[in-house]
Design brief:
The protein has helices at 2-27, 91-98, 102-108, 158-167, 196-199, 212-215, 232-249, 276-285; strands spanning 54-55, 67-69, 79-84, 117-118, 122-128, 135-137, 145-150, 178-180, 192-194, 216-221, 256-258. The protein is α/β, with parallel strands linked by helices and 286 residues long.
């Protein structure tokens, strides 16, 4: 009975907090980007997703909390940016990615329920720092391989691939665990996008051969590396991500391979121009 009473009190307090925040946004919206914003109220509750396109509060409910890592970047001037919500992105993640309080983003966009964002939703991020990926590492014995792919397209992003994979019959959409952008579709070159499959520690849908969907982490580089060369920004991001993953999960270098190198896979992915010698040399040096 005490648990139920405490839960009802928490929900009531949360509704009052949202109502107060909505009033502040309505009365002083122009001040949101300039006046000091203080994070108040309770932390977000975990709200079950109602549809496949709703993003809910971070971090996900798993047995153990993840280790969060972010690559070091050279910070530039802050300014307002517009962000298109990608698969797996929540208000909590956007706050971490841009170093902007959740209340500020909520107020600037008049969000009715900050706990739910929709893929493809356009948000203004006031006074944002340069975007920095937030990558969770979950304790697990599941992951034994890292499989590198290319999209074989000139442009793309996690959002575009998510809907494309749905059309191909992938009932959970985006089949990769990570996507490394090439500077198209409004994403910076070398940006690392984290897939819902990784956030939920789910099987991939990127390589049937060798059972890699079940124990292989799928990383997709946007681009066609049978026609072009991997950019330094994408190479740097790939090295960072693979190094962190292999060390955390104890994955040997021999288990880091391209899609086409998996026994039984009949593909040239990640492309005939992928610089394997340079990649392995630089990876070993980290």
């Amino acid at each position: 009975m005490n648990i139920l009473q405490n839960t009802l009190v928490a929900l009531k307090s949360r509704r009052l907090w949202y109502a107060g925040l909505s009033v502040v946004c309505a009365l002083s919206l122009d001040a949101c980007a300039t006046a000091p914003i203080y994070t108040t109220g309770p932390p977000p509750l975990e709200v079950p997703s109602q549809t496949a396109e709703v993003q809910v509060s971070e971090p996900p409910v798993l047995d153990q909390q993840p280790l969060l890592i972010s690559p070091e970047i050279t910070y530039g001037a802050r300014h307002d940016v517009y962000h298109i919500v990608a698969p797996g992105e929540t208000l909590w993640r956007l706050s971490k990615m841009y170093d902007v309080p959740m209340d500020t983003i909520t107020c600037a966009n008049r969000l009715g329920n900050p706990d739910e964002l929709t893929m493809g939703q356009r948000l203004r991020i006031p006074n944002a720092a340069p975007m920095t990926p937030v990558i969770p590492l979950y304790p697990s014995r599941k992951w034994k391989y890292i499989i590198i792919h290319h999209s074989a397209t000139d442009e793309g992003s996690a959002l575009g691939f998510h809907f494309a994979h749905f059309k191909r019959g992938f009932n959970q959409g985006l089949g990769y665990h990570f996507v490394i952008d090439n500077g198209t579709k409004g994403k910076p070159a070398g940006n690392i996008e984290v897939s819902p499959r990784w956030l939920k520690q789910q099987d991939g849908a990127h390589c049937k051969a060798g059972g890699m969907n079940y124990n292989g982490i799928g990383i997709c580089l946007v681009g066609n590396f049978s026609k072009e060369r991997l950019s330094e920004k994408q190479m740097h991001a790939l090295l960072y991500l693979v190094d962190k993953l292999r060390k955390y999960y104890g994955i040997p270098l021999s288990n880091i391979m391209g899609h086409g190198q998996v026994n039984g896979a009949h593909t040239e992915c990640p492309g005939t121009n992928f610089p394997w010698k340079e990649f392995k040399r630089r990876l070993q040096a980290l």
